[in-house]
């Protein structure tokens, strides 16, 4: 027995009698999880580690206060355990609380968890700290307020707000994509390249069953104008005359509407109705023979912008014109323009009869004043005959104020006449070298016979489709879209109005109200035929023009240089071939057969292949130009393949 009362009998200490687990070094697995084991044997003289030792990497199991309480309760049993363990391996069976010093030193390594607010017992009024039964951290007065927030609810709200923002952003992107324009075509002023529709109001629609059309009838047909796809409606003379419509050109006033047609308020309502559908309204203003001369302007012309201030001839002409005395008071056209602009809100005027005033010394001043009153958004329109008769010294001064020049395209002269007129327009000879105005093409008017007169109605359709592919602003005379023919008077009941037979009343399909419910008309025969199925071809051609810069633009502008985008390829044997193009856009070829025979053409020297887009029932079919077949009096528009 030694001093520890342990037997020293060699037989009891034999290595062969002890289990192998006691004769080997203790493994790490036998240590407590809070302690680190040593693999080195302790020498007898090596002192045991202190009981209050705490490894820096070992999580603290409590604070100094807890350890102190544990130490006081352990008593002599812990002292005995320490003595026993010091003679063996270091750390075996060591269950030592962390001392106060060590706890304070390594308190920042403690792993602590927050509990619900209801589990926390707040500090007492005396400043002492208490603990919740399941909480491993003390709650003090200095703890931040966000600790007590309802974090589960905050997380849910934040998630749903974030999700809502994502949905909103996706919706905005989708809306932006949906509202993007389907095409990115070059813009053009409303009257440049759009299609005009000329109407003789007395022949379009009757609303009071007197056998004569009126302004209210035009208002009722506003949806028809929208369906056509036109950009403007142009009204022929609506002014009072001695006997309207028989002598509609003999105007008695320019400040009123003939009572047969309605009132000034009706024109105002018509303009508003058309504007709602993005359609403009233009009035014909016949100043001859109503006026014999022009009146002095009401605005000082010297203060108006003059694009030719450096032209000494023009300046001299203006000084001389102001010194000429006028004969009589006359009617000031400027006052007429002010009246209709302020009372009805029309979008422009076609001043007719100006060719009778080309020698008037007040012409330039009046034209400048008219355009000044109209402004840049309303148009001033004149006829080709007026331009041709202008003195050379004032051509540029006058045309610099004009927006559109009306050019009559006479298809009765055949393809040679059409080609010559189109080439003159392309090369600027029609406008005498002035580039500012645009060409306004007309195939019919109140002074010309119907295209279908003496020919097949297909002639009207062929000429109309060809016109819709020309550079400039094409105009459709009412009824040409359905190949309306002249009124037929076989019994000779209306011989006195024979000069108006080309102004036959409009024909509508059976699903719509006809021109009037009267059985007979007081001024025209009722018998006028039309090809209503032609309307679809015209609507398709207008829609094609509106979306194709190659068709609605009349030139290509590059680096301050204007280049034509139209070429008359051929005009032989009653076959007219016109090509239109625009950079980075589709090119088109218009082939018109104005003859009476079906022909097969070899156009491979000009084109290879393409797709029919207008003018034929074979729409969207691929065609090759080695044997291109076309019927008599037919126009086919082909989108060329690149």
From TrEMBL:
The keyword Transmembrane applies. Residues 41-93 are annotated as: Disordered. It comes from the Eukaryota. The chain crosses the membrane at residues 159-180. GO terms for biological process: carbohydrate metabolic process. Keywords: Membrane, Signal, Transmembrane, Transmembrane helix. InterPro entries: GH, GH13_cat_dom. Residues 198-522 form the Glycosyl hydrolase family 13 catalytic domain. This is Glycosyl hydrolase family 13 catalytic domain-containing protein.
């Amino acid at each position: 027995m030694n001093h520890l009362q342990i037997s020293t009998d060699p037989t009891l200490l034999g290595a062969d009698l002890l289990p192998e687990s006691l004769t080997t070094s203790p493994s790490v697995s036998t240590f407590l999880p809070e302690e680190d084991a040593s693999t080195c044997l302790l020498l007898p003289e090596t002192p045991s580690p202190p009981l209050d030792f705490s490894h820096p990497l070992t999580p603290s199991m409590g604070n100094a206060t807890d350890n102190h309480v544990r130490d006081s309760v352990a008593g002599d049993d812990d002292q005995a355990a320490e003595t026993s363990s010091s003679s063996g391996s270091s750390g075996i069976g060591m269950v030592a609380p962390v001392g106060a010093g060590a706890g304070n030193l390594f308190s920042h390594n403690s792993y602590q968890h927050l509990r619900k607010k209801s589990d926390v017992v707040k500090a007492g009024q005396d400043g002492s700290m208490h603990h919740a039964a399941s909480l491993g951290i003390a709650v003090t007065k200095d703890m931040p307020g966000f600790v007590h927030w309802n974090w589960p609810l905050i997380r849910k709200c934040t998630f749903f707000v974030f999700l809502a923002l994502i949905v909103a952003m996706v919706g905005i992107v989708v809306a932006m994509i949906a509202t993007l324009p389907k095409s990115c075509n070059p813009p053009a002023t409303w009257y440049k390249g759009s299609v005009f529709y000329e109407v003789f109001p007395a022949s379009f629609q009757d609303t009071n069953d007197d056998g004569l059309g009126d302004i209210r009838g035009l208002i009722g047909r506003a949806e028809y104008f929208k369906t056509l796809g036109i950009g403007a409606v142009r009204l022929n003379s609506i002014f009072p005359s001695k006997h309207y419509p028989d002598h509609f050109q003999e105007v008695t006033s320019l400040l009123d509407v003939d009572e047969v047609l309605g009132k000034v308020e009706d024109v105002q309502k018509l303009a508003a109705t058309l504007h709602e559908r993005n359609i403009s309204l233009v009035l014909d203003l016949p100043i001859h023979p109503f006026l014999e001369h022009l009146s002095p302007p009401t605005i000082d012309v010297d203060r108006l912008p003059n694009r030719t201030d450096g032209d000494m001839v023009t300046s001299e002409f203006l000084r001389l014109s102001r010194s000429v005395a006028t004969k009589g008071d006359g009617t000031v056209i400027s006052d007429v323009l002010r009246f209709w602009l302020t009372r009805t809100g029309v979008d422009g005027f076609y001043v007719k009869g100006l060719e009778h005033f080309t020698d008037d010394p007040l012409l330039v001043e009046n034209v400048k004043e008219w355009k000044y009153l109209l402004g840049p958004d309303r148009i001033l329109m004149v006829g080709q005959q007026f331009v041709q008769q202008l003195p050379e010294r004032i051509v540029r001064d006058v045309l610099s104020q004009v927006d559109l020049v009306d050019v009559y395209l006479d298809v009765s002269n055949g393809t040679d006449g059409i080609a010559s007129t189109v080439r003159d327009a392309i090369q600027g000879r029609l406008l005498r070298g002035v580039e500012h105005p645009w060409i306004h093409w007309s195939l019919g008017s109140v002074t010309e016979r119907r295209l279908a007169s003496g020919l097949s109605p297909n002639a009207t359709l062929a000429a109309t489709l060809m016109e819709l592919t020309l550079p400039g602003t094409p105009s459709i005379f009412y009824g040409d879209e359905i190949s309306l023919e002249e009124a037929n008077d076989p019994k000779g009941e209306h011989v006195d109005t024979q000069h108006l037979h080309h102004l036959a009343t409009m024909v509508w399909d059976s699903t719509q109200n006809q021109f009037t419910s009267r059985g007979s008309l007081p001024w025209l025969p009722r018998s006028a035929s039309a090809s209503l199925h032609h309307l679809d071809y015209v609507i398709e051609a207008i829609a094609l023009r509106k979306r194709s810069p190659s068709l609605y633009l009349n030139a290509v502008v590059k680096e301050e240089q204007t280049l034509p985008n139209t070429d008359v390829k051929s005009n032989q044997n009653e076959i007219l071939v016109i090509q239109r193009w625009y950079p980075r856009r589709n090119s088109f070829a218009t082939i018109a057969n104005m003859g009476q025979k079906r022909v097969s053409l070899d156009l491979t020297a000009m084109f290879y292949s393409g797709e029919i887009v207008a003018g034929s029932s074979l729409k969207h079919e691929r065609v090759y130009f080695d044997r291109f077949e076309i019927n008599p009096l037919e126009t086919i528009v082909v989108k060329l393949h690149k």
